[in-house]
Write a structure and sequence with these properties.
By secondary structure, this protein is α/β, with parallel strands linked by helices. Among the domains are: 38-216 and 336-432, Calcium-transporting ATPase, cytoplasmic transduction domain A, CATH 2.70.150; 559-775, 3-Layer(aba) Sandwich (Calcium-transporting ATPase, cytoplasmic domain N), CATH 3.40.1110.10; 1005-1151, no CATH class. It has 42 helices and 29 strands. Strands 10, 11, 12, 15, 16, 17, 18, 19, 20 and 23 form a ten-stranded mixed beta sheet that branches. An eight-stranded mixed beta sheet has the order 8-29-28-27-9-24-26-25, sandwiched between helices. A hairpin with a 3-residue loop joins strand 10 and strand 11. The longest helix is centred in the C-terminal third of the chain and has 41 residues, at 913-953.
Length: 1323
């Protein structure tokens, strides 16, 4: 394909091959002189600064400037240092190492001309002098031992010989004396005619290249070792207190034991001397329990970190298009090497730094790398060098491609110069290395755990004070030695501390982490790659899904099944029969029925005006690119006799390419014909193209001739469009127009290239060539998935770029469109007022002919109405809507890199059914946490009350459950139960309930019912056994052994009640089958076996260490029966109606958490401040996290979003929402906007400080609270007597904000509104 940067027919210089070095002398650059027309080479940015200059003191563009640059003085008295002009900087200066980077400039046995450090000087900052110092593009090609047209050789292994930088600089001679028009830029690489078989790379492949320049990967972030995690876990303040107390207890115990043994030797006949002296055992047991808690907690964290490393590897891997050995191939982003030739296409995320080789109208967004918000147009490196050597102004030329940037438009290729840690994006990523953030649920639970810990701490402090007073009061009556008194005091301290240990529910955040880690790993099997962890739990409460059509609901395997060629020729596939016309010619007869001239025209229209290329998929030859384009190319190959694509393209001389744009819904190419004329081919949405046509191809079977398009012919084409749409076919139009010269006389030209015409000036008076209908069948299982969503209370909407008839047909087939639903077109929808949208959206099921901006408007309104919104998108322009949604789903196969980056979950198979799986797992995560919370609170309440009451009642200040026993209970409830309850897979009926509201309380009435009921039962059983067990069971409690038996029985019963209660907590509803799905959760069964085995071992061999004795058969029977009764208690509790229990429960325990629906109304410019004070109170309540060492170390940053109160400044409150400064891309705060970081200006305390202002303002007569509309946010129902289409038209009539479109040009005709439409996908 020809490059547009030079006229056709100019002889090209031979591209130097890496094996034949050119000889010559380096040419010194001429001095910089500015001609009068040089300023038009490239436009400046909107800020007036050159594109290579970034606002701020540290301008990246200062090294490139004109000769007479004066040193300005800044307004604050600072000094700006002026740099020499690009032409004046010496090669040595341009490549001088920056301080601290000297190591990058040293490479042993370098087989290439350049070091990684020298190549980095191209980019940081962008430097044309550095490019010149490396020999320009030709020097880079030679020095990197690559080929800009064929790419790297697949046979490359170890390289022979060396290349010097001086040899590379000799290539500058190719630029001397040239002009831009002479065509120095290489031809863009195209796919070869013959398919190259796949080459197996040897282990030595690219060995030298990888050794010198490294791979395109960042070194793995060093994971914390298990020992470091154990040390972090031990930093918990409570565990430190407990460990200190245990050490003191151990020291005193050893001292007591030594003293007792000494006393026994002195008095061997004393009966006490014959007893075993193990006073040290309790201290050892506590230390062992602490070690177990630390090891288990650290082990969980270690496992979780490893899972996230695996997920991140999968998340960041993607394929890119590259040229190797002259063949277009798809390679992993990790396999990109310095010297590779990569393709650039709209929507691509640039994976490595490089230099632009050639292409058409490539513009990039480099804001993520440089901060410059303008689109930056790229100039081929050879053109830049030609102008630089000629002494022209190079200030506005930019041939540099920055990694991390995005391709906004255009197509082209570039040469990779830096990868991995050497690339600009790699350096940024190495500096940013993020820690895992807490999800909103984790933050909520951290707050809850903090509250519980405070209550437990207060109880422990009260207990310590009470016991200490009693101890001091009885001290004079105590006969023991001093060390025994000390031991007694230490036991009091240990008891109090242990209550804190039991009360601190550290298992809560652990449960969320485990549930999320388990769910994300399992979701990957269901083709959901979770990029943002919080989205997993948010998805469980999604209330509406806005889905794309193409590729998500349909298979995205497009084939042409019908069409109209010229005036009269209708054709169709024989298998496609629904609504088929009787006069359709079979498609396999087209080739023989049309003339060679028309066939050549049709072939060129399809092959040249396309970005798809030939390649391989799963080892088979295939077209790679947009599915619409590949369908057209397949049609050309199968029915028009098209040869190899590269051959067809090499015969054409392309002078301008206009890439696809979703705003104009078409793409175009201009070709120079052998006759000297120029032909413009346009392909795109049939309705858009039909408006701009004035002629039609007369007879496809005869020589090429055109006739004027009559009204009846326009009507016939419109009828075909409607007919195809009713058959669920996508319609694509092909039109063309001939010109005698290029750019055409009277047409405007692009500012930065006078050889390219402005598309809007030439896109008129076209000739209609062909209309095709493309079939995209529904994915199997989509109707069932839609039904499941609707059953789960999730409203499914289709948002598509297709016309309204096609969209409605597909939506009906899916089950999305139902009777009484509303179908609207994007242009009508965006013209509605805010109130009209609120009325229509609840019934809106299909939004057809919509732009990405329409999707964004819909998502914003749904969020303002309190919905939790999931959105699917695949295009670059879908990015804002994906970011704005609560959960953004991007397409793993068809999605652009920008869309994937903006999304929270990637659908690896692009299938709508995977969204249902995500919904199920999201609910499973929320359920798992609630199950564990229900279990945790039951044990907390019981254990704390039990320890407190029995310790106060005991004469020896000892609770019925000793410290070491409470630690075992803590281990069970914190860790084992978290593991067991967090791994329940979602049951089949999890979708048979509506989603939870955003404001729903964390602990429901049903959960409180089970928590309080079980806690009462456990307390009653334990108190009865402890205080009345001796008399009931006939034990003589004057005997120490019997007292120990009763104490062991109480402990054993308490633990078994927890084990059985765990089964109760497998259900959160009032159904009785608590064993449902148990056989599928082997993890739950295994953990229960461990818990039961551990308890049995403790009773049989725990002995003095855990202060237990062996129990006999009847005692085991009592323990097990009383434990099992908790299952029956669970049945009784479930029988109590929730409304009855709700009446006796304090309202604060179950009331909704009020969250404000805070937004600016478009038409009334007023703020709604619903429950602003409540929001502040909620924020203060959860402001801090639990003070656990392990949790703090994981840096769970509190980023739960509290909704921003809009600043009450004049500039913001009185600014019309439609004004240019209005940031319409950012959604208004909503209860679920969990993605924004908090700054000091909108922290909880700033919000609290505003309260007096609000109150004072209301006293003065200004009310910040406005009542919502009657009928609520969802608006009033639409009267049945009015048709949706009529309502839509009436609504659009009221709008005065929509800019009227310019009338069509003379000789064009506008089809009726009902058939307008097009896809946002590239045709």
């Amino acid at each position: 394909m020809s490059d547009p940067s030079h006229p056709t027919g100019t002889p090209r210089p031979e591209v130097p091959r890496i094996t034949v070095p050119e000889q010559g002398n380096p040419v010194s650059p001429q001095s910089s002189t500015l001609g009068p027309g040089d300023e038009s080479i490239k436009p400046a940015s909107r800020s007036g600064k050159p594109f290579l200059e970034v606002p701020g003191a540290d301008s990246r563009g200062n090294s490139i400037d004109e000769k007479n640059f004066q040193s300005p003085t800044s307004s604050n008295g600072g000094t700006t240092i002026a740099h020499a002009s690009a032409a004046e900087i010496s090669d040595e200066e341009a490549l001088r190492p920056d301080p601290g980077t000297e190591e990058d400039f040293r490479v042993e046995d370098n087989r290439f001309a350049f070091t990684p450090g020298e190549l980095n000087k191209l980019i940081n900052p962008k430097s044309l002098p550095a490019l010149k110092a490396l020999g320009g593009l030709k020097g880079l090609e030679y020095g990197l031992r690559t080929n800009v047209t064929a790419g790297l050789s697949l046979d490359e292994t170890l390289l022979d010989g060396n290349v010097s930088i001086d040899e590379a600089r000799m290539k500058l001679g190719a630029y001397k004396g040239r002009t831009q028009e002479e065509g120095i830029a290489p031809e863009a690489p195209s796919t070869p005619e013959d398919e190259v078989p796949p080459v197996q790379l040897s282990e030595q492949a690219f060995a030298d290249r990888i050794r010198v320049y490294k791979r395109n990967t960042l070194p793995e972030k060093k994971a914390k070792s298990i020992f470091l995690l154990m040390w972090i876990a031990l930093q918990d303040k409570v565990l430190i207190l407990l460990s200190a107390a245990a050490v003191i207890s151990l020291a005193l115990g050893i001292y007591q034991t030594i003293q007792a043994q000494k006393h026994a030797r002195q008095n061997p006949d004393n009966p006490e001397s014959k007893e075993a002296h193990v006073e040290w055992v309790e201290g050892v047991a506590i230390i062992v329990a602490v070690v177990i808690v630390v090891v288990v907690g650290a082990g969980n964290d270690w496992q979780k970190e490893r899972q996230f490393v695996k997920l991140n590897k999968k998340k960041e891997d993607r394929t890119v298009k590259a040229m190797r050995s002259g063949k277009a191939v798809q390679i992993s982003v990790y396999d990109i090497l310095v010297g590779d030739i990569l393709y650039l296409e709209p929507g691509d995320m640039i994976p490595a730094d490089g230099v632009f080789v050639s292409g058409h109208n490539v513009k990039c967004d480099e804001s993520s790398a440089t901060g410059e918000i303008d689109q930056i147009k790229k100039t081929p490196a050879d053109d830049c060098m030609v102008q630089m050597m000629a002494g022209a102004n190079t200030k506005k030329l930019d041939p540099f491609i920055l990694s991390g940037g995005k391709v906004l438009e255009g197509v082209g290729t570039y040469l990779v110069t830096s990868v991995g840690v050497n690339s600009s994006h790699g350096k940024i990523m190495m500096a940013l290395r993020e820690d895992v953030e807490a999800t909103p649920l984790q933050v909520k639970l951290n707050g809850l755990a903090e509250g519980i810990a405070k209550i437990g701490g207060a109880a422990a402090l009260l207990l310590f004070v009470v016991l200490l007073i009693r101890f001091l009061a009885n001290l004079k009556n105590f006969d023991g030695s001093a060390d025994e008194k000390a031991q007694r005091f230490i036991q009091i301290l240990i008891t109090a501390i242990t209550i804190v240990v039991v009360a601190v529910p550290e298992g809560l955040p652990l449960a969320v982490t485990l549930a999320l880690a388990f769910a994300t790993t399992r979701m990957l099997r269901d083709n959901n790659l979770v990029r943002v962890l919080r989205s997993c739990e948010t998805m469980g409460n999604a209330t509406t899904v806005c889905s794309d059509k193409t590729g998500t609901l349909t298979q995205n395997k497009m084939t042409i099944v019908a069409g109209v060629l010229g005036k009269h020729l209708n054709f169709g596939a024989q298998s496609e029969g629904v609504g088929k016309k009787h006069n359709e010619m079979p498609m396999n007869e087209i080739n023989s029925k049309i003339s060679d001239e028309v066939k050549a025209l049709l072939l060129q229209s399809i092959t040249i005006n396309s970005t798809a290329f030939e390649g391989e998929e799963e080892g088979k030859p295939a077209f790679i690119g947009s599915k619409t384009e590949t369908a057209l190319l397949s049609f050309a190959r199968d029915h028009l006799g098209m040869g190899p694509l590269a051959h067809e393209r090499s015969n054409a001389s392309v002078v301008q390419l206009i890439p696809f744009d979703s705003a104009r819904k078409c793409m175009a190419a201009v070709v120079k014909l052998p006759s000297g004329k120029y032909r413009l081919y346009v392909k795109g949405a049939s309705e858009i193209l039909l408006k701009q046509t004035s002629k039609i191809l007369a007879d496809p079977s005869a020589t090429l001739s055109e006739v004027q398009l009559s009204g009846s012919e326009v009507e016939a084409i419109e009828n075909s469009i409607v007919s195809f749409a009713k058959r669920s076919l996508r319609t694509i139009g092909l039109v063309y127009r001939d010109f005698t010269e290029w750019p055409p006389r009277g047409a405007r030209v692009e500012e930065d290239d006078s050889r390219q015409a402005v598309f809007s000036d030439i896109f008129k008076e076209m000739t209609f060539l062909c209309l095709v209908g493309i079939q995209d069948p529904l994915r199997p299982g989509v109707p069932e998935a839609v039904r499941q969503c609707q059953k789960a209370g999730v409203f499914v909407r289709m948002v598509t770029g297709d016309n309204v008839i096609t969209a409605k047909a597909i939506a009906t087939e899916c089950g999305i469109y139902t009777d009484g639903g509303l179908v609207m077109e994007g242009p009508d929808f965006r013209r509605l007022t805010k109130n009209q949208m609120r009325e229509l959206i609840p019934r809106l099921q299909v939004l057809a002919r919509s732009s990405p901006e329409d999707k964004q408007i819909l998502v914003r309104n749904l969020k303002e109405m309190g919905e939790t919104v999931a959105v699917t998108g695949d295009g670059t322009n879908d990015g804002p809507a994906l970011k704005m949604a609560d959960i953004g789903f991007s397409m793993g196969i068809a999605g652009t890199e920008v869309a994937k980056e903006a999304s929270a979950i990637i659908l690896m198979d692009d299938n709508f059914s995977s969204i249902v799986k995500a919904l199920m797992w999201g609910r499973a995560v929320n359920d798992a946490v609630k199950k564990f919370l229900q279990f945790q609170l039951t044990v907390n309440i019981t254990a704390v009350l039990l320890a407190f009451v029995t310790a106060v009642a005991s004469e020896e200040e000892q609770p019925v459950l000793r410290a070491v026993q409470l630690l075992w209970v803590n281990l069970i409830m914190d860790t084992f139960a978290a593991l067991a309850l967090a791994t329940d897979p979602p049951p089949a009926d999890i979708l048979n309930r509506p989603p939870q509201r955003k404001s729903a309380p964390l602990i429901t009435v049903n959960m409180w019912k089970m928590i309080i009921g079980q806690a009462i039962y456990q307390l009653v059983v334990t108190f009865v056994l402890h205080f009345a067990g001796g008399s009931i069971l006939g034990y003589d409690l004057s005997e120490e052994h019997k007292r120990d038996e009763l104490s062991s029985l109480v402990f054993n019963t308490f633990v078994w009640m927890q084990i059985f209660n765990q089964y109760n907590n497998r259900r959160l509803d009032n159904k009785f089958n608590i064993f449902e799905g148990l056989h599928r959760n082997w993890f739950f069964i295994l953990i229960n076996v461990i818990m039961v085995g551990g308890q049995v071992m403790i009773i049989f061999i725990g002995g003095a260490a855990l202060r237990v004795v062996r129990l006999d058969g009847p005692q085991w029977a009592i323990s097990l029966i009383l434990g099992a009764i908790s299952l029956l208690i669970g049945v009784v509790i479930r029988l109590i109606p929730d409304p009855v229990f709700k009446k006796i429960l304090p309202k604060a325990m179950y009331s909704d958490r009020k969250t404000p629906d805070l937004f600016v109304s478009d038409d009334e410019h007023r703020f709604e401040w619903n429950q602003g004070i409540e929001d502040i109170r909620h924020e203060l309540q959860f402001i801090k996290m639990i003070r656990g060492g392990r949790l703090n170390s994981l840096k769970f940053k509190t980023k739960e979003i509290k909704h921003r109160l809009l600043p009450l400044s004049k500039s913001s409150s009185h600014q019309p929402p439609g004004s240019p400064d209005d940031n319409s891309q950012i959604p208004p705060p909503s209860p679920s906007s969990h993605r924004r970081k908090r700054s000091r200006s909108n922290s909880a305390f700033a919000a609290a400080a505003m309260v007096p202002s609000i109150v004072a303002g209301s006293v003065g007569g200004w009310s910040p609270i406005e009542k919502p509309m009657e009928g609520g946010d969802r608006g009033l129902p639409i009267p049945a007597s009015r048709e949706p289409s009529q309502l839509s038209r009436e609504a659009s009539d009221h709008s005065v904000t929509q800019v009227e479109k310019s009338p069509p040009a003379t000789g064009t005709r506008t089809p009726p509104d009902t058939s307008r439409g097009a896809s946002n996908e590239k045709p």
